[in-house]
Design goal:
The chain has 193 residues and is mostly helical. Helix 2 runs parallel beside helix 6 and helix 5 crosses helix 6. The longest helix is centred in the C-terminal third of the chain and has 23 residues.
Length: 193
């Protein structure tokens, strides 16, 4: 999320493959789903999300919009490093060859999760002019704006929803139930409205 409130689409990681039921929740059509054997993020998930961030933050950037270039025109490839003729592009060589005054940087604030520190993530960010700034260790609970201002409210609402669900006699709360409640519980996260 930017300081202006613009945000990239939600990226949900579940232990199971997404199903059609996941999509039938009136969520933003750009919401992305990923699978993880542990249901937690990994370095590969971080890299996949970084590609989403790369494209979406480019579209949202007023500076990039002012150039009149598309993502592919500006970088010479898509977010996966494929050129116009679908060949893989040497991203690190290209980034080093671009003159600094012709580069437009984006800053991404992250926590210290080990998947964010993976060399592939940093190489990718360097190639696409994304500057990563990590919050100090053990400081995200106090400093990370989304944890303090958005996710804590979402967690409180989610706990309230779970209590009401159980009190009504429902003892199973599925991923689909979670997604249905996501937009209701926290429209700031799931919706562009």
């Amino acid at each position: 999320m930017s300081a202006l409130g613009e945000r990239v689409p939600l990226y949900c990681i579940f232990k199971t493959d997404p199903t059609e039921e996941f999509l039938d929740n009136d969520l933003d059509p750009e919401v992305r789903f990923a699978k993880s054997a542990t249901a937690f993020s990994s370095a590969q998930h971080t890299l996949d999300w970084m590609k989403l961030f790369n494209v979406e933050s480019f579209k949202l950037s007023l500076t990039f919009r002012a150039t009149g270039y598309s993502f592919k025109e500006w970088f010479g490839c898509d977010e996966h490093g494929r050129t116009w003729n679908n060949n893989l592009h040497d991203l690190t060589a290209d980034a080093g060859a671009r003159q600094v005054h012709k580069r437009l940087f984006r800053v991404l604030l992250i926590d210290g999760f080990s998947g964010h520190c993976d060399p592939r993530v940093h190489e990718y960010c360097e190639a696409f002019d994304i500057l990563i700034q990590a919050f100090p260790p053990h400081g995200t609970a106090h400093m990370q704006p989304l944890d303090v201002g958005v996710f804590s409210a979402f967690k409180a609402q989610h706990q309230k929803t779970l209590r009401e669900y159980v009190q009504a006699g429902n003892y199973t709360f599925t991923r689909v139930d979670f997604l249905r409640g996501l937009k209701v519980s926290c429209p700031l996260i799931a919706s562009y409205d």
